[in-house]
Amino acid sequence: MKHNLINRREFLGTTAAGGALFASGLLSHRLLASDTGQLPRPRPVKIHQIFAGRTGDFYLARPTEELAKFNQYFSELEKKLGDVQFVGGDTIPPADAGQLAEKVKEADAVLIIHMSGQGSEAPVLSKIVDVGLPTALFSEPYSGHDWMYFTQLRKQGKKVMLLPSSDWGEIERAVSLMRVPALLKQTRIIAWGPPLGTSAACSAELIKDRFGAELISVTDAHVKEMWKNIDPAAAQAEAEEYWLPQAREIVEPNREKIIDAAKLFLAVKQLMIQEKAQAITSCHCMGDPRACLTFSKLNDLGFVGGCEGDMDSTLTMLLFAYAFRAPGFISDPVIDTAKNALLHFHCTSATKMDGPAGPRLPFSIRSQCDSKAGVALQVQHRVGQAVTCAKLVNLDTLLITPGKILETTTNPMACRTQFAQSVPNARQLFLNYGRGVIHAGTMAMLHRVVFYGDFMEPMRDLGDLMNFKLIEESGAA
User: For 45-184, CATH number?
Assistant: First the structure.
């Protein structure tokens, strides 16, 4: 396939007036900073910390000075994560577990540090766990013998993550997961047009009941009206700030189309600020202008833009964004047993797949492939990168497949961004795709979301905390 390629310098020079504006550098930060303000982020998650058991000169008890070391670690963790706040710091004993159970209800989650115990702490701690908040119980080796009884809490279906480890980094991983339910309760999701997917995921009532998140609807006409009212100069500045200078190539779209796409981002950003929303999905995203650049940048910023009104994928992206700061790539996959691979492709992708603080992947600005119109992205993904392919369906089951990126391709039969992911067993994946739990249309059955990182085990823990089932999709039925 042949394309008329121009570099970004030639592209910016195609209109002298626009080139002069961009070269001056006067529009960029002034207009972008003042146009729509900051996208809404949830408040920090409040985690009540508890030390369980005696310290000091007792058999199998942690040294008393470790209390100060833990508190210092929590302070540093607050700064690192940015959206958690540790409260409490109570020690049992002398604190009464029953009274403390009432106190922790004011928090979003509970972190218990097991300092010692000879079989008597487990029943006491169960009073805290029974409050029902997401709870993690960290128990280092040589902290007593109660660890034998803690597994009973899990077997009883309690929302508790057990961490028998000498690695304090396990605490950070647990805290990252425990914040997810609290952040979801503060989340508002915009359905731009009718939501699509499984019936449960399209129900505002069920989403509210299951996760506490709110699903609100806006019409295509409303978004288009906001788009038309965006200052063209601000859209030019947005295009120059984020897209034109950074693109490796600009292929099919002309300059006006790219500015229109940047204009849509500013309109959607304004809408999300007005609605206090952290996510948006649209069944109109392949209209004119297309939302590919809009959703890419939202995902780069740590928010969620979901393609084609896909509510199941949008909720999946929220889970991973809150737990791991990982943006998702919604894919129309196909299976190749010859390569033992899942081949992913779509016409939009985040460029910061490592998260908002990470580098941008190389990308070209293209048209949307099947329509040969609009503005889309061709992103060069990182070969060798560990990935997790997943989808939360029916609000209660996470389909998941681990692997790594084997290669990137430019097959003209597929969408612009393409890469192959290794899978444990491509034939089993082909035979069992969906594992019989998706009963919806083609898009809901087909779409999966790919994230940079191996998140199999953390998602098992999150499933325990949030009571969803995890199924490895390429495993035996």
Answer: 3.40.50.450
Q: Pairing mode, if any, of strands 188-192 and 214-218?
A: parallel
Look at residue 341 and give its three-state secondary structure.
strand
Q: Mean pLDDT of all residues in the chain?
A: 87
Per-state percent for the chain, helix, strand, coil, to nearest 5:
40, 25, 40
DSSP 3-state of 275: helix
Please classify residue 411 by burial: count the beta carbons closer than 10 Å to its beta carbon, then call 0-12 exposed, 13-18 middle and 19+ buried.
exposed
User: DSSP per residue over 159-217, as a string?
Assistant: SEEEE--S-THHHHHHHHHHHHHHHHHT-EEEEESS-BSSTTTT-HHHHHHHH--EEEE
What digits encode the pLDDT tens for the residues 305-347? 999 999 999 999 999 999 999 999 999 999 999 999 999 988 8
The ranges of the chain annotated as CATH 3.40.50.450 are 45-184
Under the banding of pLDDT at 50, 70 and 90, the label for residue 57 is: low
d(CA 263, CA 242): 12
Taking alpha carbons only, the member of 410, 388, 384, 385 closest to residue 399 is 388
pTM of this prediction?
Answer: 0.89
Q: Tell me the β-bridge partners of 388.
A: 402, 451
Strand, coil or helix: 36? coil
Q: Give all strands (DSSP E) within 40-196, no chain letters.
A: 45-52, 84-92, 109-114, 135-139, 160-163, 188-192
> pLDDT (tens digit, 9 = 90+) per residue, 70-129?
999 999 999 999 999 999 999 888 888 889 999 999 999 999 998 877 555 566 788 899
Q: What is the CA radius of gyration of the chain?
A: 24
Cα dihedral: 392, 398, 399, 405 (round 10): 80
Lowest mean pLDDT across 10-24, 64-78, 159-173: 10-24
